[in-house]
């Protein structure tokens, strides 16, 4: 696959990624990569708009209003104006509110890359195709930074893995729109390594509110890194692989994984199956068990009063304590992350979606059922694997797995992506308004600017 001018043989990884991000021309992007950028942009916007009315979104918009003073970029939902960095922060918080955004290698790239690209494009008056190119490049940089199981290596230190990568995706996307050359883009990425500031994992274990501000701060840091580079600040050329560089700092004794720059510009890591879309507002690990539970409920009506116990298997790693939180559930954060909450909601309400989250909080029946759900894991499973076994009081056992999880739910084409957008924004946007957003994203490659699309994000 083509899509960027390659670095010279003596280039450091920071310089190689900088040359790729700055030198990849929109017209040279593989069609499949452009299509994914369009789908990912629409999905992230849907996730951001769907958070309306949730406490995390309301607080972010209140913060935006308090910082009002005008600026070249727009806060989604409210339509207020702010700086590129501030809008990147707030819009990232919105996009991550429901944990409905894409996930995989590199963390949650959509919530970092899309807000940074759109805010920078609005400020620069950039054409729509440049936004799509920035999204594509930002995803690729963030995915490559996440090489070598970085997220788990960071997690071993009690840090939240996805917050180690977000600044890089945001910085590459914003810097691309700002027109940084190869050298300045390398400086930008070097500053991303210094400013990434991974957040701690403790909030996810306890159900407190830091999760979304963490990702928002990553986006803000990436935009700031691009602005510093544009202002002429120089960064360490060995910021990634150096003896005191990013990878050694976060647990790689042998230094930077070769995959970070391997076949850069030829093979798009972010276009493979390493990243998935989520069909539910939950942590990625919970997708398989939720699907399995839905199949059980669809196949046979289960009276929660008849349930003696529920056994769940999903992908395991040793710091996912928050994902097996048994309740009682007192915060939205606990509900959104917990596998027992999600499975109990399916058994009680027949499905798991945005409405199930608000309905389940404070429901004693859900707390009682979740307490009978035991979650264990399989370390070798993939992100969306899972199984659920319901043991009834009469001794019968009902089981289902996620083996038949439809591919279009986690790797959607444009049609499936638009269906998800409409479901996400039902109750937030009128059908005609939702259709207008879909049309604007659909035609973005030919749009001379992004103003029309951004205007539609005001609700």
Q: Can you give keywords for this protein?
A:
459 residues; 2-methylcitrate dehydratase PrpD; globular; 60s Ribosomal Protein L30, Chain: A; disordered N terminus; alpha+beta; four-stranded mixed β-sheet
Mean pLDDT: 94
Alpha carbon gap, first and last residue: 40 Å
What is the helix/strand order? HHHEEHEHHHHHHHHEHEHHHHEEEHHHH
Q: Approximately how much beta-strand content do the residues carry?
A: 5-15%
Flag low-confidence runs: 1-8
Strand order of the largest sheet: 6-5-7-8
**Superfamily at the CATH H level of the largest domain?**
2-methylcitrate dehydratase PrpD
In the CATH hierarchy, the architecture of the largest domain is: Orthogonal Bundle
Q: Largest beta sheet, briefly?
A: 4 strands, mixed
Q: How many alpha or pi helices? A: 21
Name of the CATH first level of the largest domain = Mainly Alpha
Give the radius of gyration.
Answer: 21 Å
Number of beta strands:
8
What is the helix content?
A: 40-55%
What's the number of structural domains? 2
Shape designation: globular
Do you know the CATH topology of the largest domain? 2-methylcitrate dehydratase PrpD
Instruction: Look at the helices and sheets and give the structural class.
Output: alpha+beta
